[in-house]
Write a structure and sequence with these properties.
The protein has 250 residues and is an alpha/beta fold. The protein folds into two domains: 189 residues, Alpha-Beta Complex (Spore Coat Polysaccharide Biosynthesis Protein SpsA, Chain A), CATH 3.90.550.10; 45 residues, no CATH class. Helix content is 30%, strand content 22%. The chain contains seven helices and nine strands, in the order βββαββαβββααβααα. Strands 1, 2, 3, 4, 5, 6, 7, 8 and 9 form a nine-stranded mixed sheet that branches. Helix 5 packs across helix 6, helix 5 packs parallel to helix 7 and helix 6 packs antiparallel against helix 7. The radius of gyration is 18 Å and the shape is globular.
């Protein structure tokens, strides 16, 4: 079986943004369109499967992608992301030789070629303490392992939900707690624009949502973990008032 038959790129989008997807013809593409209400949607070729989902929330869309993926691996895509074919092939080679890895995190750059955020320089295993900044379009999963462990995105989190952040981190945390293994590799797999609908602006509500994410991941230990997160250099990540809101969740 060739590399391109092992991996599906699964996109989540709205009907109004469907035209902007940059497909890679080398791989099967699965597109979940939420609340399709437009006529004359763009034509699709034989390498693209399109599903319609009458609901709201990116986590629901991602879960539909997982449910409908039949290949060994799945790379999550957004409608404003452009993927690198050679990097995907390299990632597949790694996963094929490391069968114990069920989640692989990689890197993304912006339209200028700069890394989207501060990434570690070396490969490392994923833990609850180093996966909080994961983005979905940086993630490849081993589908059979994820399905067997019944890991899905928490639909109370992510874009379109009240808690509009954190679905990726919670997904990874649930997988790790279920006994699955994850790895980060310093390989650029995607180009994602700096100005994105997923950006947040360090408001009090952002801090409160992040507080709920930590509560979901760490339970009764979350206040201590949130305090340690704030104290870890560089400190005062949210400003003083928002940091207090983050620690106490109110």
């Amino acid at each position: 079986m060739s590399k391109n038959e092992l991996l599906t790129i699964g996109y989540s989008t709205l009907a109004t943004r469907l035209h902007g997807i940059k497909y890679l013809d080398l791989f099967p593409n699965l597109v979940v369109v939420q609340n399709p209400n437009l006529e004359n949607l763009p034509d699709i070729n034989k390498n693209i499967v399109r599903l319609e989902l009458h609901s709201k929330g990116v986590a629901k869309s991602r879960n539909a992608v997982i449910e409908n993926t039949t290949t060994e691996y799945l790379l999550f895509g957004d409608d404003d992301v452009e993927f690198k074919e050679e990097s995907i092939k390299t990632a597949i080679e790694f996963l094929e030789t490391n069968k114990d890895i069920s989640i692989l995190l990689l890197q993304a750059i912006d339209e200028t070629g700069a890394l989207r955020k501060r990434y570690p320089k070396l490969a490392h295993s994923l833990k609850l303490t180093n996966s909080a900044k994961a983005a979905t379009y940086e993630m490849i999963i081993r589908v059979p392992a994820i399905k067997k462990a019944s890991i899905r995105f928490d639909e109370n989190f992510g874009a379109g939900a009240k808690n509009y952040l954190g679905d990726e981190y919670i997904f990874i945390a649930d997988a790790l707690r279920a006994g699955l293994n994850g790895m980060f590799l310093p390989i650029v797999i995607a180009i994602h624009p700096t100005d994105s609908s997923g950006n947040f602006h360090n408001t009090k509500e952002d801090a409160l949502v992040r507080s709920r994410i930590f509560a979901r991941v760490f339970g009764i230990w979350s206040p201590i973990i949130r305090l340690l997160f704030i104290l870890k250099p560089p400190s005062k990540k949210f400003g003083f008032r928002n940091s207090i809101a983050f620690i106490f969740g109110r």
